[in-house]
Amino acid sequence: MLGVTLRRGLVGAVLAWGLWALPSWAADQIMVKFGPISTPVTVNDLQTLATTGQASERLTSLLGLAGIQAADAQKFLSTPVPVQPATLDKIVNSFVGNIILSQVATFIQPVNGGDGVAAIKTGLSQSAQNNPITLINLIKNYPGDMTVDAQKAMAIYKQIQADAQNLPQVLAAVDELLPLVMPGFKFSAGCLPR
User: Fold this and answer.
1) Is the dihedral of CA 97, 103, 104, 106 positive or negative?
2) Is the separation of the CB atoms in 60 and 70 below 8 Å?
3) Neighbour tally for 139: CB within 10 Å
4) I want to staple 53 with a disulfide (CB 3.0 to 4.6 A). Which of 11, 12, 74, 109 is the partner?
5) How far is CA 168 from each of CA 104, 178, 188, rounded to the nearest angstrom?
6) C-alpha distances in angstroms, 125 versus 17, 92, 134, 140, 141?
7) Strand runs (DSSP E) across the chain, as ranges?
């Protein structure tokens, strides 16, 4: 009787570990670069920040360098993006999706120097299959350790913010040009208030 109970307990523990543990290929740490300075940040520290809002000493220093509050970082790490796996697959494998991922791969690279776009696609796909897509889940599902160039990331983020301000004008221009090629089609129909 004790042997059966012990065996069930061990099987339960092994199954629980298998269900909750990160894949063996998942990221353990991120090497964050600020110009010539690099410092490692563990995925566990980021998970703690995402879950509790508490930042480790090292993470607090990095957030201070970037001018980011821990609460804002927590929100950034843990806010879900509602997208179905099939939709995500179509987006990341589209022409535009590859352009966007290529831009992201300029500041997020596998430590081993592999294909950054493929690694991001893998992380996104795994996140969509197993969890809601959040930045922390993407990081946890990224295939291996990564290097993040914080200066490039901030520069691209600022450019995206600037470009987003021009989005209504761009969509209006597309709406004017697209009917010439595809009569009756409006690209931004329902996207923008008119």
Assistant:
1) positive
2) yes
3) 22
4) 74
5) 23, 15, 9
6) 22, 9, 12, 12, 9
7) 29-34, 37-42, 108-110, 146-149
Q: Which residues contact 187 (CB under 8 A, 6 or more apart)?
A: 171, 174, 175, 178
* Over residues 51-66, mean pLDDT: 90
- Number of Cβ atoms within 10 Å of the Cβ of 68: 14
**Locus of tokens 């600037």:** 162
Other C-beta atoms lying within 10 Å of the C-beta of residue 73: 21
| Residue 107: both structure tokens together | 């500041």
Q: Are 120 and 108 in contact (CB under 8 A)?
A: yes
**Residue pair 152/106 in contact by the 8 Å Cβ criterion:** yes
* CA–CA dist 44, 93 (Å, integer): 30
CA-to-CA distance for 181 and 176, rounded, in angstroms? 10
Q: Which residues pair with 40 in a beta bridge?
A: 31
Find where tokens 């703690």 sit.
48
Pairing of strands 146-149, 29-34: parallel
Amino acid at 119: A
CB 73 within 8 A of CB 54: no
Structure tokens belonging to residue 121? 């696609």
pTM for the predicted model, two decimal places: 0.67
Q: Which residues pair with 110 in a beta bridge?
A: 146
Tokens of 73: 């970082």
Q: At 168, list the tokens.
A: 């209504």
Does pLDDT of 145 surpass 50? yes
